[in-house]
Specification:
Helix content is 71%, strand content 7%. The protein has twelve helices and four strands, in the order ββαβαβαααααααααα. The chain has a four-stranded mixed beta sheet. The longest helix is centred in the middle third of the chain and has 39 residues. The protein is elongated and about 110 Å long.
Length: 375
Amino acid sequence: MNTQKISFDYSAPKTLLIKLSGDWRISAGFPEAGQVVGQFDLHKEVTRLEFEASRLEKWDSGFMSFLFHLSRECEHRSIFFNRRGLPDGVRKLLDIALKVADAETVLPRPSESLLERIGGKAIEVTGGIRFLLDFLGEIAVGFWRMLRGKSYFRRDEFFYILQACSVGALPLVSLISILVGVILAFIGAIQLQLFGAQIFIADIVGIAMVRVMGAVMAGILMAGRTGASFAAELGIMQVNEEIDALKTLGISPVEFLVIPRLLALVVMMPLLTLYADFMGILGGFVVSAGVLGLNPTEYWNHTQSAVKISNLWVGLIHGFVFGIIIAVAGCLRGIGCGRSAAAVGEATTSAVVEAVTWIVIATAIITFICQVLGV
């Protein structure tokens, strides 16, 4: 084996000829590209680099790395890198490596003016609104077809989603609702003790939980639990092209995937609201009777007299509306998800944020309407 690795020839004007020989594998060890770069520094008149590799014996990825770095250095110094003297296999691999490196080069994004940014955001918002309206229209059509008995979705999947939205959510709804009732009782006690009217804690806890707080807490919990689940499930189906497959088979994804989820939440949210109301009142009862020393029977009677049937209906309406909001937000972001894992995460986050935001907005609107109507 020839132990000589590399030599330099300057016989041609402004040309550096590199003569390669021996074993150029990583296991055998070989010179670094910096040795050639040093020649460029010593002979600044060089404008062309050529190779003579007739005595090259063996090579591997280490040799390719050497040539790749040398090619980049020549490009930086405006030196012509002539690959003609290299073996055919080396030239092909080097061409591929350079093409991939060029394709991965990120070009700087041109700066946008304020007007361009405003216009881009306006176009984005307009597109989102149009997509939302199309989605709501498809849901309306799907419900109409369902009422006429022409829609198609799996009944077993509907009951599975119904179970996931009900029994699976009870532990979390129970815990949060009880704690909310406890908090309301303690807050009410702080002020009512000043007047010796602690018994009216029953009124505060009962009306607040039944009218608003039970539905709001259940809605926020379901947005983070079920709404995010809907967005993630449909987003993964979008990534795996399962939704495209349904369209190819002539099945509407909205009818097959969205309608059962929407129905499940519309049915279960009012029931979960009732359950949250009861658990919140129970939390206030425990604090009032066990900590504040109120008479349990008197507390329960005050609760019954304070909570009117109108308050109950207002709370149920809240739950019904929140069910629609959570299902639409989750399914909308899932159906509109991109084709990557990162897009699934973004869709899940957007579903939760939008659902919680619209729950708060809907609460304000319903409260205002009830105030105007005197309910």
